[in-house]
Amino acid sequence: MAPVQTKETRVPKFRRRAEARPDEVLDAALQLFAAQGFAHTTVEQVARAAGLSKAAVYLYFPSKTALLAGLIKRAVAPVADLALGQIAQSDAAPLVLIAQMLRMAVRRLAAPGVMAIPALVLREAAAVPEIVQVYRAEVLDRVLPALTTLIARGVALGQIRPVDPELTLRSLVGPVLAHVLLAEVFGLHPEGGLALDRLVENHLTILLAGLAPERTTA
């Protein structure tokens, strides 16, 4: 039997509604940004789609850029947090850890509404510089240095062949970015849809073989 709510435990309806409003606003913003672009969407349109006044939206998000930052923090920043946590806590070999993080990122990006954020960034980056600034601050500036350090550690330990860690990082993330760019900007989808999981497995097959230390002959 469901627990009886007392006067002390019952949450007022208006309070539950208020707590849900930021997510409702972000859901409306994401739908509009994806449909008509960041630059062509107004805060007033977002408010209308969320069933709120423009002033109410500004209580939670003081600008359109703040809406974008909220979307990134809600959907993509947690993926970055998980990756950083794996790097900090795992004692796995660097190549094993890189493979684990790529697979984890793909699983997370496959969740509804998550891939729409990096796709939006790729589509609008050239025209809307603030998108780049927000995404870089929340995701790239946090994750890329940690991955570069991880690759350098593998080289120092002899577990990765001698390579330039920063350039190798670009080779690591480049195919994934190109895959999403071809699909979201140019409309070139592989057979079966975006298939990020298959892309990552194919990428890892090539990447891990290329980074493995050279075998020495006796």
What are the salient characteristics of this protein?
218 residues, mainly alpha, Arc Repressor Mutant, subunit A, Tetracycline Repressor, domain 2, 2 domains, disordered N terminus
Brief summary:
This protein is mainly alpha-helical and 218 residues long.
The CATH superfamily name of the largest domain is Tetracycline Repressor, domain 2
Total strands: the figure is 0
Q: Tell me about the biggest sheet?
A: none
The ordered H/E elements are HHHHHHHHHH
CATH topology call of the largest domain: Tetracycline Repressor, domain 2
How many helical elements? Answer: 10
CATH class of the largest domain: Mainly Alpha
Helix content: over 70%
Instruction: List unreliable stretches of 5+ residues.
Output: 1-16
Description:
The protein is built from ten helices and no strands. It has 218 residues and is mainly alpha-helical. Helices cover 70% and strands 0% of the residues. The protein has two domains: 13-62, Orthogonal Bundle (Arc Repressor Mutant, subunit A); 75-211, Tetracycline Repressor, domain 2. The longest helix has 28 residues, at 129-156.
List the helices and strands and how they pair.
Layout: H1 13-36, H2 43-50, H3 54-60, H4 64-75, H5 77-89, H6 94-109, H7 116-124, H8 129-156, H9 165-184, H10 196-211
